[in-house]
Write a structure and sequence with these properties.
Layout lengths: L3 E5 L2 H10 L2 H4 L2 E5 L3 H15 L3 E6 L5 H19 L4 E6 L11 H8 L5 H9 L1 H9 L5 H7 L3 H7 L3 H20 L1
Parallel strand pairs: 1-2, 1-3, 3-4
């Protein structure tokens, strides 16, 4: 049984979430990469309308401007609400990008990268996480693999404390509670 659909912009985003979400929450989640923000939103709308299964839509905000983030979330919520007919859904925005979850703890990312970052590099990391990680780890498809192969379970728990991951965990937990109450 699929408890919910988790839709992201890319396969790399799916990998991040599959590694960071607790197994007991993610085991009944169907992860889908939309391949772009627009396609992910469209897919979320279609799944809510057709399947009546909860949807977690995880997108990059592509900005750290509060009013633009509010507008984007508000617009997406409006569109999804039109087709949800009471089916739970939630929009999660990585500010400015989902990869920010790797950069919440400077000493941890320095350990993984095996180097120290100066203040300017750290500022870049906060405003352009993907670009920063590509610069540090090389512009390839293996950034997630390199990060996850260099951290242990305790360090994964540190990454799980990021507010975005905590919001997703809270949403998924509420679905499990609802599912148990219904059955």
């Amino acid at each position: 049984m699929t408890l919910a659909y988790m839709i992201t912009q890319s396969n790399k985003d799916v990998e991040i979430l599959q590694k960071l979400l607790p197994k007991h929450l993610s085991q009944d989640i169907k992860f889908i990469a939309g391949e772009s923000s627009y396609r992910a939103r469209s897919l979320g709308t279609s799944l809510l309308a057709a399947h009546k299964t909860p949807v977690a839509l995880v997108l990059d905000a592509d900005t750290d401007n509060e009013s633009q983030i509010f507008e984007k979330r508000d617009l997406i919520n409006y569109v999804l609400k039109q087709v949800s007919f009471g089916t739970p859904f939630q929009v999660f925005l990585g500010v400015p990008e989902l990869e920010i979850v790797f950069l919440q703890n400077k000493s941890l990312i320095e350990k993984i990268a095996q180097r120290q970052f100066n203040d300017l590099e750290w500022q870049l990391s906060q405003s352009k996480p993907k670009e920063f990680l590509e610069t540090v780890f090389g512009n390839n498809q293996q950034i997630n693999a390199r990060i996850f192969s260099n951290i242990n379970d305790e360090e994964i728990r540190i990454l799980q404390q990021h507010p975005l991951i905590q919001e997703i965990i809270t949403f998924l937990s509420s679905l499990i509670t609802s599912s148990v109450a219904i059955n």
